[in-house]
Amino acid sequence: MSAAIAPGEPLLALRGVRKSYNVGTPVETEILHGIDLELAPGEFAALVGPSGSGKSTLLNLIGLLERPTAGSVRILGQETTTLDEAGLTALRGRALGFVFQFHHLIPAFTAAENVMMPLLIDRGRPDPAMREVARELLAQVGLAADLAKKPQQLSGGMQQRVAIARALAMRPPLVLADEPTGNLDTHSADEVFALLRRFNRDHRTAFLIVTHDPRLAARCDRRIELVDGAIVLDRA
Known about the structure:
alpha/beta, six-stranded mixed beta sheet, 26% strand, four-stranded antiparallel beta sheet, Rossmann fold
């Protein structure tokens, strides 16, 4: 289900990316100032920086939720800035998974149905193969016995594990995680981090993790630091 990429080509490549808001008005503000960034398949990187540094804006651009004011954003070798909304939606569904601080599970759906959502959006109707994918992923995140439970019947850590399984349902080559452990206690946060690491290792899924947790950032393979809309540190 995962998308292919040419050998040696970066999974993600940003060149000269700028993002401004209120363009053409007296209060025009540039948030990102010429970002250059690459991610290779299978990388496990932390994106850190103080509040207001532009981390969420950068993640939104990479996630194809916003368009840059200038520059190039290439994912799987595809220049995204020339795509229409349908093209962006298709590429987002094929190439990217998302995990947020707040899981955004659908309360009326079971754990299995929540995990199936990306597949349902992609294919238009449920089928037995989708249910099997959900069952396998929930087993991998330690929730094999909880397929039929609704989110309110699960702990915060369990809900986040369902959200991780959902992010991986389409086997995306890149998962964007915005403070994925920020709403969890230390034990649950460690469990969630270990799961991300395992999927990174076993499936060569790349992860870009926005975090304020220095403990978590220190356990990533690469640290990218953003300050005032510019990358000031990028090291393994």
